[in-house]
Amino acid sequence: MTDTNAHAQRFFISYAGPDRAWAEWVGWHLEQAGHTVILDVWDWRTGDDFVQCMDEALTSADAVVAVLSQAYFAEGHRSHEERTAALARRDRLIPLAVEPLTDADVGPLLAAKVRTDLYGRTEPAALSALREAVHGAVRPSSSPGFPPDGTATAPPDQEKPQLPGRAGRPPVWNVRRRNPDFSGREAAIVALREGLLDGGLSVVHALHGMGGIGKTQIAVEYAHRFASQYDVVWWIDAEQSGQLPVYYAELAERLGVALAEAGAERNARLLLDDLRGRPRWLLVLDNVEHPDRIGRWLPEGPGHVLITSRNPNWRHIARRTGLDVFTRDDSLAYLTTRVQGITRDQAEALAKDLGDLPLALAQAVGVIGNGTTVERYQRLLDEKTVRVLEAGEAPDYPASLAGTVEVAARRLADRHPDAAALLRVAAFLGPEPIPTRWLEDARPRMTTIPGDPDDLMGPGQTLGYLSDYGLARTDSHTFQVHRLTQAVLRDHADPARGEAVRSDAAAVLAAAAPGDALDPGNWGAWASLTAHLTTARFDVADRPELRPTLVEAVHFLIRSGQPRLAAGLAARLRETWVTRLGPDDPQVLFCAQYLGHATSDLGDFRGARPLIEDTYDRRRRLLGDDDPDTLQSANDLGAILFALGERAAAERISQDAFDRRRRVLGEDHPDTLQSASHRGTALTLSGRYAESRRINEDTVARLRRVLGVDHPHTLQVVGALATNLRMLGEYAESRRLLEETLAHSRRILGDDHLDTLRAMHGLASTLVQLGRYREARDLLDDAHARCRRNHGDDHPDTLESALALVLALYGLGESDASRRVAADTYERRRAVLGEDHPATLATAVTLVGILRECGELTEARRLDEDTLARSRRTLGEDHPDTLAAATSLAMTLHAQRDYRAAAQLLEATLNRQRLHRGADQPDIQNTIRALVDTYSAMNRRRQAQKLQKLLRPRPAR
């Protein structure tokens, strides 16, 4: 707005939710005086980033007005952040007390400020106090004309607020008592208040949501919180719309507009006529069932109508605010402030079990408050759900949750039996959203739903009835039944129809199978289905028609990067099916195969091995060596042996599987290309980088043609090719490929998928070789933190990212941190993989390099000698890792000034390296560089100069 005064100020009004009426009153009068006010009810929309808005407001404000009350200092209230920011600008803080407060209430910082009391005053006195407080804080050189001179305008469509805090209630008032324990729902009250203030004349606003969601409680709180802004507040229990004229006639009598000789309907009309010209009234219509039946009874005029309803169909009748369950934070706040001694973990678990439903939380508090422990309540909730949901006092709700659901379900069944039948089926599915397409696909197979299965209109109208009765939340694509509503419905299900209903639920899930679990394009659909397969309230494993779907769900969980969930589901299915189908059943073997995959992805290679070996042996016996499933198990066995460090056996099995797949399936079959990529990995681990590169380049080309550029398997092999290039010293191309792979992986797989994390630390390793340590460090900090959070400190990928981080830290000169991380990584790999595992030995070489640079030469030499001996025994004399260990020992000998021994070892190492590979490879370059340094130290300049010619320039950053 345009300032009407040359000394206009910009004020930020900070307040707690229950004091919104005071904040509006202060803000209105400041704006009338020509000042600019930042107050969320006028300037911030629901959904805005609160912290960002607050920060911007405080930064740009000339002064902060703090509306102080007990609620303002309530523990956990969001105004804590406001107070902190405001106190940083103490010279511009204007404290206004709106109820009695002691210095102990406000704390020492605010107690030191002179605060102005607005409570207990007449409106002229309060305005005078506000004016004095504002002028004293901003100190204008001349009066800014406050109170207003009449030239400024109020916010649009907003009449002058009345002074809050007046004694008593409005002259006409019949609202029930206020709930002293009301908490949460501030966003809903903000939305409600905004809607009522912004709508001009005759504003109707509907709060809608399922039973037990707290609609009535919000309406009661709103009426009390803003009572000072109304002269008439009238509450009507409007469940029976036909009784509205009777209730209206009662209000007409209270307002003195009723005629004694007139009937209820005539007096109701007189009331509507009166409200058209009467300001400041609030009419609450609680629990309206049918929007279409009350339209003619909605008043017009300069007042507000607040409706609560389970039915969401208020379009063209009222503004709408849909209510969901509590946020988890609101649930935790509710429980921790009402249940003595409850821990946060207990509150979290209880809130989850109760689905954050306010009525269920209130009943739980009632039961626990009568002496039941939290643990016992949760156990009873699991074992005797409905009996528990019938218990517990919740005095601000008209009925228990069980009773609320029972009444609504009975009414639905009486009027819409097809919708009730569908609801019974949904009760046996999970509590997650159910796509309506599932119903369309499964409808011909369902036997308990009356009506025409080929109805062209589909389930839309039927689902609408569920929403109308507050028994489900619906949108254009899904519907959702709360977990506790489901429990009540299951408890009251007809036993005679139970099996048929469960069969229909199974039919819905079977019809929902989305297709190939390897295709990320199907993962969203698989995620929806898996959520129901794992939480359905019937034994899905007992349904033959669901077995293929369940197996593929496990496969999806693995491929989408959820190995823990995959392992849990696969283990449960395998245990059930082995007993009923036998260990050789194909579905049992698929479960075992995927359980092995998931166990391996969790980093438990030893636990995965017996699962994979047993599956391989059974498939060879049952299907033969060339069957595609047998070859998959052979490929799995080779991979797990590589992971365990048994490289000779792994290479033999993997090569055989590769050869058989090429012969049986062809060069371009995805299974053959899987074996090809494993062959490339085997060559990399053997130090045959050039051969590995050739295979990986060919495999990438085929995968791009067969599966596509963005397919996860393609991205994996591109990452392997980039590793080849790094090992061959082609850092720029390695970086380019890894940056592309990381971008694709993030977009397709997400930031936390293992393949994405591997691309991150692969790229960081290449950046280290390019000397770009800061970029590598930033990338690795993120990757390492994600690995630790998602997979634990000892997971192989966590340790791989830690090892890369060591080199980045060292390159940045952070020697102490580098040494600490290197030592921790080495000890963890020793414990997890064993002392002779190739990854442990590679970590030892890295640690030695840090120890050597830190001057810990005795320990460095001891570890060097041990690592070299183990590498020779485990990997062989000519393996690149063995030769790298030899170079490391020689460098330690050099540091100890034993130049002769260092030179002899380096010469022997270089000769072995050059037998198999070119001198330009990075590890050979390291050996040459070390030998040049040693020759120079021995004054053997001619030999040093000759070798110097073989050194390549270090890569440019």
UniProtKB/TrEMBL annotation:
Organism: Streptomyces fuscichromogenes
InterPro entries, sorted: NB-ARC, NLR-like, P-loop_NTPase, TIR_dom, Toll_tir_struct_dom_sf, TPR-like_helical_dom_sf
Keyword annotations: ATP-binding, Nucleotide-binding
Any Pfam family: TPR_12
Record's keyword annotation contains Ribonucleoprotein: no
Name of the featured protein: ATP-binding protein
GO biological process: signal transduction
Keyword ATP-binding assigned: yes
Superkingdom of origin organism: Bacteria
